[in-house]
Amino acid sequence: MRKMFRGAAALATAVVAVIALSGSVEAKPADAWAGCPDGAVCIYPQNQNPAVKPTHVFYSYGAHNLSNQFGNHWVLNNQYGGATANLCTGSGGSGCGSPIAAKTGVYADLTPINSIRLNR
To answer: C-alpha distances in angstroms, 37 versus 6, 15, 20, 78, 97?
Structure first.
């Protein structure tokens, strides 16, 4: 009887350990893509190839004015749910080019770019 009780206790302990470990795995946050947090749009330093650490990180929808951005930069759209981003030649999100789809990036010359717009 004592052996059976010990066996049941060991089994119960193992089950609790597996459940505890499974819960911690599921709670793990999403990984950043090239240093760009999940849900953000990031701009990287000029000529940083491959993209490693962003200099600009944008989370909020709408237009964000840029300044002193020249030459080629990676722009990664690490948003989800179909959210897009545009590079725009005008300030305040005017004169925008083609949308950058969620979970994609472009290597673009930001010399003529004066703003970036995040769209739902």
So the answer is: 47, 35, 27, 7, 24
| Cross-strand bridge partners of residue 57 | 42
* Residues pairing with 104 in the sheet: 77
**pTM assigned to the model:** 0.74
89 vs 70: CA distance, rounded Å: 13
Average pLDDT for 95-109: 97
The pair of three-digit structure tokens given for residue 26, joined into one six-digit string: 């599921």
* Cα separation, 65 vs 43, whole angstroms: 13
Residue 87 contacts residue 47 (beta carbons within 8 Å) = no
Judging by DSSP bridges, how do beta strands 115-119 and 84-88 pair with one another?
A: antiparallel
In the DSSP assignment, the letter for residue 112 is T
At residue 70's C-alpha, the angle toward residues 65 and 114, to 5°, is 20
Q: How much is the mean pLDDT over the chain?
A: 83
> Rounded CA gap, 2 and 100, in Å?
66
The predicted-structure confidence for 30-78, as pLDDT tens digits, reads as follows 568 999 999 999 999 999 999 999 999 999 999 999 999 999 999 999 9
Q: What are phi and psi of 91, to 5 degrees?
A: -80, 160
